[in-house]
Design a protein that fits this description.
It is a single chain. The strands form 2 sheets. This protein has a 9-stranded mixed beta sheet with strand order 4-3-5-2-1-6-10-11-9, sandwiched between helices. The chain is an alpha/beta fold and about 250 residues long. About 40% of the residues lie in helices and about 20% in strands. The protein has a single domain, classed as Acetylglutamate kinase-like (Carbamate kinase, 3-Layer(aba) Sandwich), CATH 3.40.1160. The protein contains 9 helices and 11 strands.
């Protein structure tokens, strides 16, 4: 029996879209689904949900298969992308199970119809689920090949009226280079969309960035591995890097 959703108080954002990579679900094993990691992510989301924040989630499928990489090895690109979309559904069901074990009402909505395991994605229904206090996991990408889950995240954020996209990564923000290999890389606290595109920084693909720029949806890139970061962002703390329009 679902209870009435909590009214958010003392939070900066009331409706967010969180973009998780499939690789995050692999945990220390490097591939597949590491259930202790999935449960740790679910606990972070549950704490934020308990404050009344409306949460949508988009998950990649790279822990199972990456369509683009598979196509480079000879698999048809469209087939590889559809396989990747199905991988995101598998990850979504794992997260749904972890959240529901914590008592958090959750819905998986798929852009590819598979009624036995997920609801079809319908924008108005997704928004209604959020208003009812349910976490909504948006699976199967856009339903079309040649589009990344980054683009899915940007598109769905615009459609559902999310105030911000929280892009979870393994590093604590956007750097001038890869901080894992370049000790001289400099972290940005804020950067605008065009600078990210012109510098070729790996935040989201250009289609996703352009969609966010055109619709004024900010992106916050942060380290998912540091427990509590999502809560800190929700409360307005300076965590990670904000990608947004330049300040006038």
């Amino acid at each position: 029996m679902e209870t009435e959703p909590t009214k958010p108080t003392n939070v900066k954002y009331k409706r967010v879209l969180i973009k998780l990579s499939g690789e995050a679900f692999a945990g220390p094993q490097g591939q597949g689904i590491h259930l202790p990691t999935v449960h740790a992510i679910a606990r972070q989301l549950a704490r934020v949900h308990s404050e009344g924040v409306e949460i949508a989630v988009v998950i990649g499928g790279g822990n199972i298969i990456r369509g683009l990489m598979a196509s480079k090895e000879g698999l048809d690109r469209a087939s590889g992308d559809y396989m990747g979309m199905l991988a995101t559904v598998i990850n979504s069901l794992a997260l749904q199970d972890a959240l529901e074990k914590l008592g958090v009402p959750t819905r998986v909505m798929s852009a590819i119809h598979m009624e036995q395991v997920a609801e079809p994605y319908i924008r108005r229904r997704a928004v209604r689920h959020l208003e009812k206090g349910r976490i909504v996991i948006l699976a199967a990408g856009t339903g079309n090949p040649y589009f990344t889950t980054d683009t899915t995240a940007a598109l769905r954020a615009v459609e559902i009226g999310a105030e911000v996209i929280l892009k979870a990564t393994r590093v604590d923000g956007v750097y001038s280079g890869d901080p894992l290999v370049d000790p001289d890389a400099v972290k940005f606290s804020k950067i605008d969309y065009l600078q990210v595109i012109n510098r070729g920084l790996e935040v989201m693909d250009n289609t996703a960035l352009t969609l966010c720029m055109d619709n004024k949806v900010p992106i916050i890139v942060f380290n998912l591995l540091e427990d509590g970061n999502i809560e800190r962002i929700i409360h307005g703390e300076n965590v990670g890097t904000v990608v947004s329009a330049p300040e006038s």
